[in-house]
C-alpha cells in the first residue's frame, strides 16, 4: 500500500449537494497537499454520491465510502477506520477551510506532542441576527483558546466546533471512538478525552467558516437539545469534582432558580451532595429549598471555605459571577467551576 498521507480528513456527508463542491475545493486547495479526504456518504438521496464520484475520479486523494443511512456516529467511526494517517482533521460538507488550515493545525500538533487535539478559531457561516444564539456560541468558543482555558470552561458549553478539530487518531480509538446515544457525540467525546487527561488547544487564527444551515442536526435532533447537554456534562463534571473538590462530595450551587436547580440535581445521581444554594434575588435569599438554605453571594465566604458550582445560564451571568468570585480571591478550578 502507498505511504500513508500526513493528514486524513474525515468528511461524513448526507444530502450535501448544494455545498459539497465548495467544501471539497477548499480542502483540495490546502497549502499542505499531502492529504487524503475520506468521504463517507451516509445514504444520501440527492446528487451527493455523484459529486463524490466525480471528485474522486479527478483527484486520487479523495476516498469515497458509501454506507446505508445509519447516522452520523456510525459514519464517523467507519471513516476513522479508513483514515490512514494518525492525524485526522474533521470537516463537514457545508463548511469551508482557509488554505493553510491543515498546515497550521498539523504544525501545532507536531510542535507540541503532548497535545491530543488541535482546534482553531472559526468564522460564523450564517445569519448572525436570525441565529443570534449560534453566533454568540461561536464568539464564546473563539474566546477559549489555551489548554487551561478550554479545560476550565468545558462544563459551560462544548468548547470546540466539531468540524474545526484535528486530532490524533490513536488517542480517539484508545478512548473508544465516537459513542452513539442520547447526547451530542462531539461534546461527549471532548469531555471523555479531557476526563482521560487529553490536552486540547487551538491555533489562535480563523481557519474555518462554520456553516449554520437551518436543518443542521443540532437544530432538529433531540440529542443536541439543552437537556441532553446538561445530562452528559453531569457525569463528567461529577467525576472531575471527585478529583478536584477538596470538600467532595459537598458542593454549593450558585443559582437557586428552578432551572438551575433542576440541572444541578443531575449531579446527585453521580454521588455529589448539594449543601446550599446561592442567589442575589431577595425573594429567594433566606429561604430553604428541599431543606437546603439559600444564601446571598456575599455570604459565600473566602476561598477555601467551600466549593461552588455555578449553574446560572443567563447571558453575561458567567462573566459577572467569575468577576465577583475572583475579586474575592476565589480561583477557577480550585474554589469553583462554571457549569452553565
- Just give the CATH class of the largest domain: Alpha Beta
Low-confidence residue ranges: none
Sum up the overall morphology in one term: elongated
- Biggest sheet: strands, sense, closure? 8 strands, mixed
Q: According to CATH, what is the topology of the largest domain?
A: Spore Coat Polysaccharide Biosynthesis Protein SpsA, Chain A
Number of domains: 2
Helix content: 25-40%
Organism: Oceanidesulfovibrio indonesiensis
Domain CoA-binding: 251-328
Protein name: Glycosyltransferase family 2 protein
InterPro entries: CoA-bd, Glyco_trans_2-like, Glycosyltransf_2, NAD(P)-bd_dom_sf, Nucleotide-diphossugar_trans
Description:
This protein is an alpha/beta fold and 340 residues long. The protein folds into 2 domains: 7-224, Spore Coat Polysaccharide Biosynthesis Protein SpsA, Chain A (Alpha-Beta Complex); 241-338, NAD(P)-binding Rossmann-like Domain (Rossmann fold, 3-Layer(aba) Sandwich). It is built from 12 helices and 14 strands. It has an 8-stranded mixed beta sheet, with helices on both faces. A 6-stranded mixed beta sheet has the order 11-12-10-9-13-14, with helices on both faces. Strand 9, helix 11 (258-265) and strand 10 form a beta-alpha-beta unit. The longest helix has 19 residues, at 226-244. The chain starts with 6 loop residues before the first strand and ends with a strand. The model has no long low-confidence stretch (mean pLDDT 95). Keywords: Glycosyltransferase, Transferase. Belongs to the glycosyltransferase 2 family. Residues 251-328 form the CoA-binding domain. This is Glycosyltransferase family 2 protein. GO terms for molecular function: glycosyltransferase activity.
Amino acid at each position: 500500500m502507498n505511504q500513508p498521507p500526513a493528514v486524513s480528513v474525515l468528511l461524513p456527508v448526507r444530502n450535501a449537494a448544494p455545498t459539497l463542491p465548495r467544501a471539497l475545493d477548499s480542502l483540495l486547495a490546502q497549502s499542505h497537499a499531502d492529504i487524503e479526504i475520506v468521504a463517507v456518504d451516509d445514504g444520501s438521496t440527492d446528487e451527493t454520491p455523484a459529486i463524490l464520484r466525480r471528485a474522486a475520479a479527478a483527484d486520487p486523494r479523495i476516498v469515497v465510502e458509501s454506507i446505508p443511512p445509519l447516522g452520523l456516529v456510525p459514519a464517523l467511526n467507519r471513516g476513522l477506520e479508513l483514515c490512514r494517517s494518525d492525524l485526522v482533521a474533521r470537516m463537514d460538507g457545508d463548511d469551508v477551510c482557509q488554505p493553510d488550515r491543515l498546515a497550521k493545525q498539523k504544525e501545532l500538533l507536531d510542535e507540541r506532542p503532548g497535545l491530543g487535539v488541535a482546534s482553531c478559531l472559526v468564522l460564523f457561516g450564517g445569519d448572525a441576527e436570525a441565529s443570534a444564539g449560534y453566533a454568540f456560541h461561536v464568539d464564546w468558543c473563539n474566546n477559549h483558546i489555551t489548554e487551561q482555558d478550554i479545560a476550565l470552561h468545558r462544563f459551560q458549553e462544548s468548547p470546540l466546533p466539531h468540524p474545526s478539530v484535528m486530532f490524533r487518531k490513536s488517542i480517539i480509538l484508545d478512548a473508544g471512538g465516537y459513542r452513539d446515544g442520547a447526547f451530542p457525540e462531539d461534546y461527549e467525546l471532548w469531555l471523555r478525552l479531557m476526563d482521560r487527561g487529553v490536552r486540547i488547544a487551538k491555533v489562535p487564527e480563523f481557519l474555518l467558516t462554520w456553516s449554520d444551515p437551518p436543518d443542521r442536526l443540532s437544530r432538529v435532533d433531540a440529542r443536541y437539545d439543552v437537556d441532553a447537554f446538561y445530562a452528559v456534562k453531569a457525569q463528567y463534571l461529577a467525576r472531575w469534582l471527585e478529583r478536584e473538590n477538596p470538600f467532595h462530595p459537598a458542593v454549593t450551587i450558585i443559582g437557586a432558580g428552578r432551572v438551575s436547580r433542576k440541572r444541578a440535581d443531575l449531579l446527585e445521581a453521580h454521588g455529589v451532595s448539594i449543601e446550599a444554594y446561592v442567589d442575589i434575588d431577595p425573594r429567594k435569599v433566606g429561604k430553604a429549598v428541599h431543606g437546603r438554605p439559600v444564601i446571598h453571594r456575599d455570604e459565600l465566604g473566602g476561598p477555601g471555605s467551600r466549593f461552588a458550582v455555578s449553574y446560572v445560564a443567563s447571558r453575561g451571568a458567567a462573566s459577572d459571577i467569575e468577576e465577583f468570585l475572583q475579586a474575592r480571591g476565589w480561583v477557577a478550578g480550585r474554589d469553583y467551576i462554571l457549569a452553565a
